[in-house]
Specification:
This protein is α/β, with parallel strands linked by helices. Helices cover 39% and strands 14% of the residues. Helix 8 (226-235) links the parallel strand 11 (216-218) and strand 12 (240-242). The chain binds (2R,3R,4R)-N,2,3,4,5-pentakis(oxidanyl)pentanamide and magnesium ion (MG).
Length: 361
């Protein structure tokens, strides 16, 4: 599916988009249940069609006739499928795997007649708070940026995240300063660089960044450069959040073991599904690191996992897909409402699938 984003489109430091791409899969089980799984992409370069093709031609046939209840075993079968080893292991293959894994968890929870968070935990978190990202895009002019952030805080959101990474970082500093001033010192303020900076820029602006009392800085550097993140963490003095571009628990291990990440933003729809998300969250929790997922799923899946896992009490809010779901993630007074319907919260409304669907190529 291609679903329109807010306004006339949004921008971060590296991309501008008008639509969110939602490739996905529906699994039909012999018990008559349907499992829905999906991931999220930029609706650019047919990337989402590459993912659905990967499912249709490579992973799909491997699932026929299998027992849908053993999700972990199926996950391993797909992840370790030798013929796909040189085609994937990150990007397309992991996003395809995520679609299937999520659909399998959806089936499992539906068969148990429980929302997934209840299936995954006997002792769920009482509250998952929401912070808002949808008023902080890079293409939003200063006045609207301030107005939007103030509005969101008045609505009760527990924080705001704004995008940075202008060609001239001085513009970023002005925008951060203005938002901090507008929302006051008690509101959580996060900034997201989307990998645009390097150590030189970070050094130059470190002192200024510290003054803003940021809750975190997100993806300050190129995603794979662990060494640079270790150096950054040694002088920055601002907590580092990352994970939306890491594709397996082993990628997270390096960052977590070396103190190069403070907020673990593992995203189930990037990391190969709920199965792998859970492993990363367990490891983070063992190290005392909070998990605040990046919502490539636009919240519905992570609301379930955050309620179930003790590492996560805060979740990003971006409402682009809300109208597509049978039970959209809903925030009241800054807190997510508890989903009630059986499943992983991934069932799409048929009307939405019809309206936004794209052909398979
Ligand atoms: C828009 N969220 C992110 C969106 C997102 C991007 O390009 O996909 O900002 O990946 O960084 O925190
Ligand atoms: Mg981000």
């Amino acid at each position: 599916m291609h679903v329109p984003v807010t306004g006339n489109g949004i921008a971060d430091s590296t991309n501008q988009i008008t639509h969110w791409g939602v490739p996905g899969v529906v699994l039909f089980a012999d018990n008559g249940l349907k499992g829905y799984g999906y991931t999220g992409t930029h609706a650019l370069l047919s990337g989402d069609q590459l993912i659905t093709n990967f499912i249709a031609h490579i992973y799909g046939p491997l699932l026929m006739g299998e027992d849908a209840t053993d999700v972990q075993a199926l996950w391993k079968k797909l992840y370790h499928y030798p013929a796909a080893r040189w085609i994937g292991r990150a990007g397309i293959s992991q996003l395809a795997l995520a679609c299937i894994d999520v659909a399998l968890w959806d089936l499992k929870a539906k068969a148990a007649n429980l929302p997934l968070w209840k299936l995954l935990s006997n002792d769920p978190m009482p509250v998952v708070k929401a912070y808002n990202t949808d008023y902080g895009w890079l293409n939003i002019p200063m006045e609207q940026l301030i107005e939007g952030c103030k509005k969101v805080v008045a609505q009760g959101f527990t924080g705001v995240k704004i995008k940075v990474g202008h060609q001239n970082p001085k513009i970023d500093m002005r925008r951060i300063a203005a938002v901090r001033e507008a929302v006051g010192s008690n509101v959580r303020l996060m900034i997201d660089v989307n990998g645009k900076w390097d150590l030189n820029i970070a050094r130059k602006y470190a002192a200024q960044l510290k003054e803003f009392n940021l809750f975190w800085i997100e993806e300050p550097l190129w995603f794979d450069d662990l060494e640079a993140h270790i150096v950054l963490a040694s002088f920055l003095g601002v907590p580092i959040a990352l994970g939306e571009q890491l594709y397996s628990e082993y990628h997270f291990d390096g960052f977590m073991a070396s103190g190069a990440v403070d907020f673990v933003q593992v995203d189930a729809v990037r990391v190969g599904g709920i199965t792998e998300w859970w492993s990363v969250a367990d490891k983070a929790h063992a190290k005392g690191l909070p998990v605040v997922p990046h919502v490539g799923d636009m919240m519905n899946i992570h609301l379930q996992t955050c309620l179930a896992h003790p590492a996560s009490t805060l979740l990003e809010y971006i409402p682009w897909l809300r109208h597509c779901f049978e039970e959209p993630a809903t925030v009241e007074a800054g807190v997510f409402k508890l989903p009630e319907k059986p499943g992983a919260g991934t069932t799409f409304r048929p009307e939405a699938m019809q309206e936004f669907s794209r052909p398979l190529h």
